[in-house]
Design brief:
- By secondary structure, this protein is an alpha+beta fold.
- Among the domains are: 190 residues, Ribosomal Protein L4, Chain: A (3-Layer(aba) Sandwich); 37 residues, no CATH class; 64 residues, SH3 type barrels (Roll); 63 residues, SH3 type barrels, CATH 2.30.30.30; 52 residues, Recoverin, domain 1 (Orthogonal Bundle), CATH 1.10.238; 64 residues, Orthogonal Bundle (Recoverin, domain 1).
- 37% of the residues lie in helices and 14% in strands.
- The strands form six sheets. A six-stranded mixed beta sheet has the order 2-1-3-8-6-7.
- β10 and β11 form a beta hairpin.
- α1 packs across α2 and α20 packs antiparallel against α23.
- The chain is elongated and about 150 Å long.
- The protein starts with 10 loop residues before the first strand and ends with a helix.
- 26% of the residues are buried.
- Belongs to the universal ribosomal protein uL4 family. Belongs to the calmodulin family.
- Keywords: Calcium, Metal-binding, Repeat, Ribonucleoprotein, Ribosomal protein.
- One of its GO terms (biological process) is translation.
- It comes from Musa balbisiana (Banana).
- Potential calcium sensor.
Length: 775
Amino acid sequence: MAAAAAAVRPLVTVRTLEGDMATDAPAAVPLPDAFKVPIRPDVVRFVHGNLSKNRRQPYAVSKLAGHQTSAESWGTGRAVSRIPRVPGGGTHRAGQGAFGNMCRGGRMFAPNKTWRRWHRRVNVNMRRYAVASALAASAVPSLVLARGHRIESVPELPLVVSDSAEGVENTASAIKILKQIGALPDAEKAKDSQGIRPGKGKMRNRRYISRKGPLIVYDTEGSKIVKAFRNIPGVDVANVERLNLLKLAPGGHIGRFIIWTKSAFEKLDLVFGTFDKPSKKKKGYVLPRPKMVNADLSRIINSDEVQSVVRPIKKEVKRRTLKKNPLKNLYTLLKLNPYAKTARRMALLAEAQRVKAKKEKLDKKRTQLPKEEAAAVKAAGRAWYKTMISDSDYAEFDNFSKWLGVTLSILLPFPGPHETFKLVLWQHFIGVMKFKEGDWVEVFRRNEEPYGSWFPSKVLSVDVDKCAVRCELSATPDGRPIIEKVHERDVRPCPPHAPGTEHWMVGDIVEVFDAHSWRVGKIAKVLSDDYVVTKIFGSIQLKEFHVSNMRSRRAWQNNHWVMINKRTLQGHLKPQRVSIHDDEIRGAGRKRKGSSKNDAATLLKSAGDRINMYTQMEADKVSSDAHFRNSSAVPTRVTEEIAECSVASCSGCITLEELGTVIKSLGQNPSEEELHEMIREVDSDGNGTIEFGEFLNLMSRKVKETNVEEELKEAFKVFDKDQNGYISASELRNVMMNLGEKLTDEEVDQMIREADLDGDGQVNYEEFVRMMMAV
C-alpha cells in the first residue's frame, strides 16, 4: 500500500500558537520522505507482535509442585489404575492418586520453565521499515479515523505546531494548546474511556484500561513539554530520535494521531534519510522506495497512455448451440426425420382401431340371456349365497360355536356394534336381563379409566335400553355420588362368590378388586396361600392382592354364571357352570398353611364390607320379588360370605330350621312340609341336610322357572310397539336402531324370514319364544 495522494504534497503548514509574536507568519516545511514510504500493515503487525514479547518476565511453577508426597503405584491386579497412590490410612487422602496431571494435587502437564524462549529477535531493517510505515500511515486521515481518533476539528495531517510548544511547563497550558489545534476531543475521548479491565488481568497490576489519545513528538532533549503532557490520560510523548513502534502503532494497528513540533518534523529526514541519501542517525539505512508512484490503479489503467496500446474490447459474442434430444423434443426430431410425424399419426390410428375392435368383440360376447335362463342363473346364485351365509356366519358364531363346543358368551364377552339380530337379543334380554329400580348391578366401563372394569352400582331408574345407576364405592372430588346413564348392554347382575378357589395357579384368569372396581387380570406369581401377584389387563401393572379381593372370571349366560379359566380361553373348552360343593366349604374351614389370625380378620372384614353393601337393598325398601329375582347375584353372595366366614364353627350343612330362616330372609314363606319336600328333592346323599352346592342348585332352578318367561314377555313388548301381538319389519328396524344396530332393509327382511314360521311376514310371540330359546 502506497501513501495516499492527499498525503503526498510538497509542503506542510506549521500552526502558530497563542503567545507567538504577531510578526511570525505561518511557515511551511517540506514533507519528509518518511511519509512517502509504502504502508505495510503486515510488517507492522509482525514486528509489533515480536517486540511486545521482549518485555515479558520469565515465570514458572515450583519444581517440587505435585511431588511432595511419597506416593507409589499399587501395581496390577487390584482392579484400580496404576497411577501412584498416597500411602497411609485413616484419612481421605490415603489411597488417592498423586503425581499425575489428572490427579487432584498433582503436577501440571508440561510445567512452565524459566528457560523458555520468552523474547524474540527482530531484524533491524524490518524494525525500521515498520516504523517508517507507521509514520506514513499517520499522515492518511482515513486511516487515523479508522483507528478511532477524533480528528474532525484538526486542520490537516500531518499536524505540525511551532516550537513554542516545547516551552510549555504546566498541564493547563498543554490542554490549552490541544484546544487551539483541535486535538482536545481526542484527548477527552481517551480520558472518558478509562475502565476496569475484564478478566484476571485486574489482579496482576494492570487493573485499568483506556483508549489511546494523540502522540506528541518533540526534538529538544530535556524539554519541559514532557512534564506538561504526561499527566493527560491517553496522551503519550516521544523524542523524534527514539520513535518506538509500540507507540506509533499500539496493538499493531496503524494510524496513530501524531502532533509534531516544527524542529522534530524537520529532523525526520536526518533520522530516517531520504530515498536518495542514507540516514545519518541510522548507519547505512535508506528508505524503501514505493513500487508505484501513483497508487490509483484504476486511473492508470483508464489513462490515454495505457488505453492507446492495449487491445480493444471484443464485442462479437459466439453463443453455443443448445443441444436438444430428438427422442424427447418433437421439433428436433422432425428436423432430423420429417417422416416421424406421419409414422406417429399412423401409430395412433392403428391403436384406435385396435381399441374399437376389442370393444366390438366384447359387446358381441355380452349378449343378454333369455328371461327364463337369466332367472335360473339368478336363483342358483341366491341359493349359493344362502349356503355361504349359513356355513360361514362368523358374525353370529352359531355353527362355529356349536362345532367348537364353546358358548357364545365366552367367545364374545362384550358384543360390538356389528353383531346380528340373535346376538343382540341374547345380550340385551337374556344375558344382561331386565333390571328394575333398586337392583344391585355391575357397570362396564368402556370410555373411562380404568377401562374394561366392572363397577358395583345401584339402579336408580330404567328406560327402554338404558338405565341410571349410582356408583356406591366412589364419589366426585367434592364428595357427591357418581350418577350416570349407561346402556343396558353394559350392565350385568353382581356375580356370586365361589368358595374353594383358594388354590390359584400362575396363568389363571381372575378378577381383582382394584380402584373400587373389578378388573380382569392374570396371575403372574403365587406368593403364598393368601397373597398372589396379578398383572392387570390393559396395563403393565403388577400388584399384590389378598385372596379375599379376588374372584374367578365368569360370564353371565342364560341366567347362569359360567366360569372362565385359562383352559377355557386357550383350549376353547366348554365352560362349566358355577357349582359350589360341600367339600369345598369344608375345605375352606381347614386352616391354610402360613395363615394367621390377621388373615382371618382381613377375610372377615372384607366379607363384612360386602355384606353391608349388598344388604342395603332392604334398607332401600326393595320388593321381595325383585330381591328374589336377583338372588343369584346378591343373596347367594351374602350367604357364601357368611358360610366362608363362619365355616370354622359349623358343619358346612344347612338344617331344616336354617333353610327356613334363609328362605324367609329372601322374601319367601314356605311351610314345614314344603321345606321337607325341598330337602328331599335336593338331598342327594340322604343325610337330611343340604350342602351349600345343593342349596345353590335349588335356588337357581327356582329363579330360572320364575324369571325366563317374564324376561321373554318383557323383551317381546319392547319390540311390539303397537301391542298387537306381532313384530313387524318397521318395529324391528326401529328397536335395532335404538340399540345401536343400523340394519339395511335386506337384513331386516332376512331376520323376519328366519323367525317367521307361518309365512305371514310378521313374528308372533310363539315364534319369538322359539327363536330366543334356540339362541
